[in-house]
Structure formats: C-alpha cells, structure tokens
Automatic annotation (TrEMBL):
Keywords, alphabetical: ATP-binding, Biotin, Ligase, Nucleotide-binding
The protein's name: Acetyl/propionyl/methylcrotonyl-CoA carboxylase subunit alpha
Domain Lipoyl-binding: 585-662
Cross-referenced InterPro entries: ATP-grasp, BC-like_N, Biotin_BS, Biotin_carboxylase_complex, Biotin_carboxylation_dom, Biotin_COase_C, Biotin_lipoyl, CPAse_ATP-bd
Cofactor: biotin
Species for this entry: Polaromonas aquatica
SMART domains: Biotin_carb_C (SM00878)
Domain ATP-grasp: 120-321
Residue span(s) of domain Biotin carboxylation: 1-455
Superkingdom, taxonomy of origin: Bacteria
Length: 663
C-alpha cells in the first residue's frame, strides 16, 4: 500500500479521501489555491502545497504544477476526486509518465468514455442497450434533423463532450429542431470547446438509475448495485438513493451485467459509474438504456457505502496499489435503504441561482442523537468559511440510512431540520419540501418530480409572519434582559423607566413591510398585535431555543440574529424576518458611515464615484458582482468620498473595505 498520496482536489471530496487515507495510515498531501489558503481540507491533510490563484485554471486544473507538488512531497499516487482533473486522460497519462499512480482507470478507458457519441458506438458493439438515437460523426444540420424526425419527438440534443447537466436541449416538435440545435451547439462550443452533438429519444417518465462498478488489475469485476438519482434540477442531481424503489432482483441483475459489459469493453479499472435512463411505460414495464459512464468516484457514492457497509475510497486505494477486489459478486449484499441530500448554496425560488456568502452559522445534525451510522455528514467547510464564486456551490451532503425507505426518509427530514445555515441562501428548506412531497414520499420518482410538485416546493412559508414576528419580539426581549443583568436603572421595558407601556416594531417579511405592537401590562404580562392578530405572548428560553405561545399556537424557535435579520429555525421549517426595532434605532441615530464594505465575496465591477466627490445618501457608489448577480453599494449618508481602495475587476473578500467616505 502507498505510504503517501496527493489529493488533487478541494472541499468535501478532498476531506472525504483524506479521512479514509488516515484510517489506512496513509499520509496525505493537500493542494490549495489562494482562495483556499485557510480551507478545511488544507488543515485536514498532513501536508499542503500552494498551487496558484483562485480560479480553477490557475490552480486545481494546473496539472504540471500538481505533479511537481507530488514529486516534491514524495507522494506515490494522486487521487483526483471528482470534477477538475478526474476525467482528464492527459492528466492520468502524465501521472504515469512521471512515475506516479493515478488513482482511477487507465487513460484509455477515460478516453473511450469521454465523449458520449463515441462511447455509445462502443457500447452498441458490446451489446449494451442504447436509447434509440443518432450518435454518428456526420454533423450536418439537415442530417441531424432528418434523424430527429425518424427517431420521433420529443428528442434530446446532447453535446457529446457535455457534462454537469450542460449542453442539453429537449425538442418537442420538428419545427423547433433547428433553433434548439443552434443554441445547443453554441453552449457546447462555449462550455466544452467541441460542438459535436448526438440526438436521442427523450424517454417517457424517465428515471436516472446508475450502477456502481469496480474492476481490479487482475481482471475481476463486480457491481455494487444501483442508485436512483431521478430527483434533479437543471439535469443535475439533488437527492440520490439506494436501492432504487421498485427495482426487481431480475432487473438489478440485468442492469448490473450490462454495466459490467460496459466496463469490460474498455478494460476498466477502479471505481466507475454506468448511468442508465430508465423508461417507465404506462403498462408498468421498465426499460433501461445506457446514457454515459463516469470514469471516477461519484458525488453520491456514500449511499452505496451505506447499504453495502463498504468504503469505496478504500477499495480505490486497494485497486490502485495492485491488490485484488476484496469481495466477489456473490459476497455483496444490500442492507436497508440510504438517501443522500446535496445541500447547495443556491436560491430555489429564483431558478436555483447559485449563491455565495459566509457561513456565519453552520450547524450540522447531531449524528450522535441518531442510531449509530444512521446519519452521516460529508463536507469541506467550517463555520466562518466562505462559499466563494470560484467553485462548486455544494456546501455539504447529508446521508441517512434506515432499515426501510420510510425510516431513512424520516431521518432525513429530522437531519435537515437540524441543519442550520445563516449567511447565504441554501436549498435546505426546499429539500425538506421535496422529502415531504407526495411524489417523493411515495417513491413516485422520475426526472420531472420537481416541476410536477412545484406547487408544494416553491415560494412556501413554513412559519408565517405572525409566529416569525412573535419569535423576533421574544428574542429581542430576551436579549435585552440578558444585557441588562440585574441593574434596575438600565431596564428598558418602557413601562417602568419612561412611563411608556407600548412599544412598536417594524419588520420586513418576505419583501413586505409589517408592523407589530407590544403592550406591557401592569401584571408583567405581554400583549402583542401583529396585523389583525392580537393576544397574549408567553415565552421562555429553553435549551432548544425559545418556547413560544401566541395566537393559539405553540412553537419552539431557535433564533439567530445576523445584523438586523433574525433567522428563525423551527420544527416546521426555517424563515427569516428583518427587525427594525424603533426604540433601539431612536437611541443610536443614523448609520455610522465611514467604512463601506463588500457584502459578500465577489468581483468589483465598477465605481460610480472618485476621491473628492460629494455624494448624497442612497447614491450608488460601486457595483459588485458575485456569481451571476450584481449588487449596488449605496452611500449610507451624505458625505465626501475620501479614497477608493480597489480597482474594477479586483476580487474582494466579504467585509473588505471598498472605499472610504466622510459623513
Ligand atoms: P451529464 O453528462 O450532464 O451528466 P447525462 O447524459 O448523464 O449528462 O444526462 C443528464 C440527465 O439528463 C440525466 O440524468 C437525465 O435526467 C436526463 N437525460 C439524459 N438523457 C435522457 C433521455 N434520453 N431521456 C430523458 N432524459 C434524459
Ligand atoms: P455525479 O455525476 O458524480 O453525481 P456531478 O455530475 O454533479 O456529480 O459531477 C461532479 C461535479 O462535482 C463536478 O462537475 C463539479 O462541479 C463538482 N465538484 C468538483 N469538485 C468538487 C468538490 N470538491 N466538492 C463539491 N463538488 C465538487
Ligand atoms: Mg450524467
């Protein structure tokens, strides 16, 4: 076995690989970019080498630099993780040319499966069932259209070099074909530098079911059963599970053997995944067709680990060091059911637009409160870390296991409820809605689950203004009480010190202004009015947050304040409310001014002012861009610009001071 390996990746997968290496007493070398200098994976490995700038092309894709780092640190092998260089046959070749072991398949297998069209031609020869379609090399638009007409609509046009859900267009009718082809080719050339496409039948009620395969250098092959990854957004996976609901023993065997035929056809070695599209016919029958093979470890590999009790990274290391597969096909068993949820920094209500920001609060489920092994969290971040615009938006993966799917599902809902993130938009709440949706709960799976259930998935409000406002008021009062301590002269409950017994609150909730009124009654009780709801408010601090009773409802809320925003976490779900406490504001006066900082990590697009300019309150000073969104920085008060601290195009960290003004 290797004594030391280099992990040519970052984040969650780098930590995942390092964890197994550590267990096997293998030393690890991390690589990192500028943006990742303080990242979790860097501290987690035994050594770390800086390899360049933040953009992937300046660091994680610089394979000469990575090979140098491996040589310099005495690593014997390189684990590529997924993404980045994992499916780059030149990198795999360069590793072996440099005398290093690439922990993955031989370059020839990566190449054979690299292009979807070529791999389909190969699979056809190997007798693996293919989706009816055209995957030839003639790319003339007339021919492609004729093929689409022959296949019959709807069809899917796919970039042969595509990946990550990009470069695909569904076409419903012949008239739409030309425009879709042109747009698909444009995206393909921009994203992959290759505009070759294939055309295939768009499967009916499709499910994505994939088979995990493993090969060793001694010619042994096994399949580690299937994963159902049908729940997708933008053709990208969000929830994955194993085994696939409704899978019969006969079909599992057929699919497993087809996957092994695919692997054998390219002399595969190591971990790989053969992806199939499964068509569900009206009569209940299911047909499976080869889609592509991913020649690497897959993001969702933990669900396979959960049902087999195996460590796939350990198997990768064993195979790469020349050992035989530890188990034969008839020694492999499925135990229970596992589901993985990908927690991503994104905004589900805004077309899943990726989000960036700092993890001001990052609370993970308490794995020890569940049965042993029932809940696992894989991540590459810690509280305080930023999700930057440079890399993938995945924050963490929650993996749950149960004896049955129902048990796994209940654990997933609880684990999601315990996942608390403040500082950026995530899909945590959305995932809870998906998990509870009738289709997912009843395992009525297909790739259109999210659009079909959209009525219960989007723009939902689990808590509501009334209870959100009650939580925020309770939180404000508890805070004040703890700040005041026992000093009677600093008490802020207006009734005693100022003779005022009514206090007003202003909120912003779901983009709408709202008001509440709090009355301190003479017996010390509190009466609250929010909109047209009015009644006594009773609350007390508890270990789980604040126990509240208001307007006939009882709720426990954990409230985290970030600036003026209260993030309210309850068993029903999470929400946030902006609190403008008028009493508090009256004491403090207008915003302090002076320092103007970046609200999130991103790029400076432009400055609208220069040093010496007089500006008035609310005037736009600068524009920042983070991922696909622009943010305007406005003057908090009238004043004069003293100094501009960055130039357009500069990358800035969250909280970086952009310019100074004097107010
Ligand atoms: P990528 O390389 O981007 O992963 P895939 O070929 O694996 O591309 O397809 C991604 C997703 O697109 C699949 O998981 C599935 O949801 C959908 N898809 C692909 N091919 C078909 C098809 N023929 N019919 C219906 N859906 C498909
Ligand atoms: P899979 O096919 O394995 O389910 P994807 O199709 O989403 O997963 O492809 C893997 C993707 O993982 C890459 O395209 C990349 O965007 C992303 N990725 C790469 N490295 C990391 C990482 N360290 N952490 C999270 N995601 C990553
Ligand atoms: Mg795929």
């Amino acid at each position: 076995m290797f004594k030391k390996i280099l992990i040519a990746n970052r984040g969650e997968i780098a930590c995942r690989v390092a964890a197994t290496a550590r267990r096997m007493a293998i030393k690890t070398v991390a690589v990192y970019s500028d943006a990742d200098a303080g990242a979790k994976h860097v501290g987690y490995c035994d050594e770390a080498v800086h390899i360049g700038g933040s953009a992937p092309k300046d660091s994680y894709l610089r394979w000469e630099r990575i090979i140098e780092a491996a040589k310099a640190t005495g690593a014997e092998a390189i684990h590529p993780g997924y993404g980045f260089l994992s499916e780059n046959e030149e990198f795999a070749q360069a590793c072996s040319d440099a005398g290093l072991v690439f922990i993955g398949p031989p370059p020839s297998a990566i190449k054979a499966m690299g292009l979807k069209a070529e791999s389909k031609q190969l699979m056809e020869k190997a007798g693996v069932p293919l989706v009816p379609g055209y995957h030839g090399s003639d790319q003339s638009p007339t021919l492609l259209k004729r093929e689409a007409d022959r296949i019959g609509y709807p069809v899917l046009i796919k970039a042969s070099a595509g990946g990550g859900g990009k470069g695909m267009r569904a076409v419903d009718k012949s008239e739409d074909f030309d425009a879709a082809l042109a747009s698909c080719k444009r995206e393909a050339i921009n994203s992959f530098g290759d505009d070759a496409v294939l055309v295939e039948k768009y499967a009916q009620r499709p499910r994505h079911i994939e088979i995990q395969v493993f090969g060793d250098t001694h010619g042994n092959y096994v399949y580690l059963f299937e994963r159902d990854c049908s729940v997708q957004r933008r053709h990208q996976k969000v929830l994955e599970e194993a085994p696939a609901p409704g899978m019969t023993e006969a079909m599992r065997k057929q699919m497993g053997e087809a996957a092994l035929a695919a692997a054998r056809a390219v002399n595969y070695v190591g971990a790989g995944t053969v992806e199939f599209i499964v068509e569900q016919r009206a009569d209940g029958s299911m047909n499976f067709f080869f889609m592509e093979m991913n020649t690497r470890l897959q993001v969702e590999h933990p669900v396979t680990e959960a049902i087999t009790g195996l460590d796939l990274v350990e198997w990768q290391l064993l195979v790469a060091s020349g050992q035989k597969l530890p188990l034969a096909q008839d020694q492999l068993r499925i135990n229970g059911h596992a589901i993985e949820a990908r927690i991503c920094a994104e905004n589900p209500d805004n077309n899943f637009l990726p989000a960036t920001g700092t993890l001001h609060l990052y609370q993970k489920p308490d794995c020890t409160s569940f049965e042993r092994g029932a809940v696992r969290v894989d991540d590459g971040v810690r509280e305080g870390d930023a999700i930057s615009p440079f890399y993938d938006s995945m924050v963490a993966k929650l993996i749950v296991h149960g004896r049955t799917r129902e048990e796994a599902l209940a654990r997933l809902d609880e684990a999601l409820a315990q996942t608390r993130i403040v500082g950026l938009n995530t899909n945590v709440q959305f995932l809870r809605y998906v998990v509870r949706s009738p289709s997912f709960a009843q395992a009525n799976l297909d790739t259109a689950l999210i659009p079909r259930e959209s009525a219960v998935l989007f723009k939902q409000e689990p808590v509501g203004l009334v209870m959100a406002a009650a939580s925020a008021i309770a939180r404000t009062l508890l805070d004040e009480k703890s700040r005041e301590g026992t000093d009677p002269f600093s008490r802020r409950d207006g009734w005693r010190s100022h003779g005022v017994n009514v206090r007003r609150f202003e909120f912003e909730f779901q983009g709408e202004p709202a008001k509440a009124e709090l009355t301190y009654l003479h017996d010390g009780a509190l009466h609250v009015t929010v909109g047209d709801v009015s009644g006594p408010l009773v609350f007390s601090a508890s270990p789980k947050g604040i126990d509240l009773q208001f307007s006939g409802q009882r709720m426990t809320a954990a409230v985290y304040r970030q600036g003026e925003v209260d993030h309210v976490f309850t068993a029903r779900g999470a929400t946030h409310i902006t609190v403008i406490d008028l009493l508090e504001h009256a004491g403090h006066g207008p915003a302090e001014g002076g320092r103007l900082t970046a609200p999130m990590p991103g790029k400076v697009v432009s400055f609208a002012v220069k040093a010496g300019d007089k500006v008035s309150k609310g005037q736009a000073l600068a524009v920042m861009e983070a991922m696909k969104m622009e943010h305007t920085i406005a003057a908090p008060a009238d004043g004069t610009v003293l100094e501009i601290l960055y130039a357009p195009g500069d990358q800035v960290a969250e909280g970086a001071e952009l310019l100074k003004i004097e107010v």
